[in-house]
C-alpha cells in the first residue's frame, strides 16, 4: 500500500515480475477491498498470489518512531513479519523509507558482526554498473562501519551484479592517503590489509567512470552523490529535449537520431536501477522509490529475487565469520549465528 502510485503500480509491477520470473509467488499485504477488484483482470498474478488483509497503512510522512509504535497491523509491518517467520523470503516496498528501515531493523535484526544496516543500490557507468553504499541510512559512520559496508557491498556486487571479484573504493575528496577525515583514513588502513580487492580512495567522478565495482561512503556523502546523479540525468535529458525542439533543422535531425536516442534513454532509465537494498539485515528488504511505476517496482522485485536465489544472507553470514585485519594487526570476526533466514519459500512480500 506504500508509494505514490500504490496499490496499482505494485500490482502491475508484480505482474511484470511474474512474467519475467515464473517461479515467483507473492504475498500481497494491504486493503483486500481495494486489491481484490484490481486483481480480477490480472489472471497471471492472481493465480500466484495470496492477499493478506491488513487494516492499517504507514503514511509517507509518518515518523519512524510513530510507525514502530502504532504500525503493528500495517501492510509494511505484516510484510516484514512474514520474512521473519519464513513465510516469505524477502520483502519489497515503495513505502516510507525511514519506517521501513526502522521496522526491518527491529523485526529482522542485523547479521551478527554488523553494527548498522546500510542502503545500497547500483549506478550505470561507462564500464557497466557500480554498486554504492551507504545512500542515506547512516549520516555519520565510524571506521568499523565503513569497513563493514565494504564487505557487504562486495558481497552485494557478487550476488546481484555477478562480479567474480569486485573491486572496492572509499569515496573521498581526493585519492591521496593524507586526505579525508580520520574515520576514512582509518578505514583505508584497515581495508589495505584485508582480503578484499581494495583500490584505495576514489573521487566523485570515479563513480560514473566505473573505476571500481563498489563505492563505499557514509550516508551523507552517498545520498548527496545519489541525488546529484539523479538531478544531472534529468538535466541532461531536458537539455537534449530542448535542443531538438530549438529549430526545424534540429527537429529533422531528431528523426535521424531517434533510434539512438531511444537506446540512450533506455540505458539511463532510472526504472532499470530501482530498488535500494538494506544490507546487513537478517532478511532481504528492498526499497523502491516512492514514485515508482510498474516497471520500476518490477525491477525492485528482480533485485530481491536475485539476492534470494543466490543465497545472499548465507553469504553475508559466512563473510562475517571471516577475519578482517585491523589497523592494530588484530582480527575481527562475527560471533556464531544460530539463526539464518530460510530461503525455501521463494515468495516475495509486497507492501
Query: What percent strand?
Result: 15-25%
For this structure, the quaternary state is single chain
Radius of gyration: 21 Å
* Strand segment count: 13
Q: What ranges have pLDDT less than 50 throughout 5 or more consecutive residues?
A: 323-346
How would you describe the overall organization of this protein?
The protein has 13 helices and 13 strands. The strands form two sheets. The chain has an eleven-stranded mixed β-sheet, sandwiched between helices. A two-stranded antiparallel ribbon has the order 11-12. A hairpin with a 4-residue loop joins β9 and β10. The chain is an alpha/beta fold and 351 residues long. 46% of the residues lie in helices and 17% in strands.
Question: Topology, pairings included?
Answer:
Layout lengths: L7 H13 L4 E6 L1 H8 L3 H5 L1 E5 L10 H7 L4 H11 L4 E4 L3 H12 L9 E8 L2 E6 L9 H19 L5 E5 L10 H11 L4 E6 L1 H6 L4 E3 L2 H26 L3 H21 L7 E4 L4 E4 L6 H16 L2 H8 L4 E2 L5 E2 L14 E4 L1
Parallel strand pairs: 1-2, 1-13, 3-10, 3-13, 5-8, 6-7, 6-8
Antiparallel strand pairs: 4-5, 4-9, 9-10, 11-12
Helix pairs in contact: 1-12, 4-6, 5-6, 7-8, 7-13, 10-11
What's the short story on this structure?
Helices cover 46% and strands 17% of the residues. By secondary structure, it is α/β, with parallel strands linked by helices.
Summary tags:
two-stranded antiparallel sheet; alpha/beta; 46% helix; globular; 13 helices; 351 residues; 11-stranded mixed beta sheet; 13 strands
Amino acid at each position: 500500500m506504500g508509494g505514490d502510485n500504490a496499490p496499482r503500480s505494485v500490482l502491475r509491477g508484480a505482474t511484470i515480475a511474474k512474467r519475467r520470473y515464473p517461479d515467483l509467488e507473492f504475498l500481497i499485504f494491504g486493503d483486500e477491498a481495494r486489491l481484490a477488484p484490481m486483481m480480477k483482470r490480472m489472471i497471471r498474478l492472481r493465480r500466484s498470489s495470496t492477499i493478506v488483509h491488513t487494516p492499517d497503512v504507514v503514511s509517507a510522512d509518518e515518523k519512524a518512531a510513530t510507525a514502530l509504535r502504532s504500525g503493528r497491523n500495517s501492510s509494511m509491518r505484516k510484510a516484514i513479519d512474514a520474512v521473519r517467520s519464513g513465510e516469505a523470503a524477502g520483502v519489497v516496498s515503495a513505502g516510507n523509507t525511514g519506517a521501513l528501515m526502522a521496522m526491518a531493523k527491529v523485526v529482522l535484526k542485523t547479521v551478527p558482526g554488523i553494527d548498522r544496516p546500510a542502503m545500497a543500490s547500483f549506478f550505470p557507468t561507462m564500464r557497466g554498473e557500480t554498486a554504492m553504499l551507504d545512500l542515506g541510512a547512516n549520516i555519520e559512520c565510524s571506521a568499523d562501519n565503513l569497513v563493514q559496508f565494504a564487505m557487504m557491498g562486495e558481497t552485494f556486487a557478487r550476488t546481484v551484479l555477478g562480479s567474480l571479484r569486485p573491486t572496492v573504493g572509499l569515496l573521498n575528496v581526493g585519492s591521496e592517503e593524507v586526505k579525508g577525515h580520520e574515520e576514512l583514513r582509518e578505514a583505508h588502513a584497515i581495508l589495505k590489509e584485508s582480503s578484499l580487492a581494495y583500490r584505495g580512495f576514489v573521487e566523485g567522478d570515479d563513480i560514473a567512470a566505473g573505476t571500481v565495482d563498489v563505492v563505499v561512503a557514509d550516508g551523507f556523502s552517498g545520498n548527496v552523490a545519489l541525488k546529484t546523479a539523479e538531478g544531472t540525468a534529468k538535466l541532461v535529458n531536458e537539455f537534449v529535449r530542448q535542443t531538438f525542439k530549438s529549430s526545424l533543422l534540429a527537429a529533422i535531425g531528431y528523426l535521424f537520431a531517434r533510434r539512438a536516442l531511444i537506446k540512450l534513454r533506455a540505458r539511463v532509465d532510472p526504472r532499470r536501477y530501482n530498488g535500494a537494498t538494506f544490507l546487513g539485515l537478517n532478511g532481504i528488504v528492498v526499497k523502491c522509490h516512492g514514485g515508482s511505476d510498474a516497471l520500476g517496482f518490477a525491477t525492485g522485485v528482480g533485485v530481491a529475487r536475485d539476492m534470494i536465489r543466490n543465497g545472499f544472507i548465507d553469504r553475508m553470514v559466512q563473510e562475517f565469520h571471516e577475519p578482517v585485519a585491523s589497523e592494530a594487526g588484530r582480527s575481527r570476526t562475527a560471533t556464531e549465528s544460530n539463526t539464518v533466514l530460510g530461503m525455501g519459500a521463494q515468495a516475495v512480500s509486497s507492501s
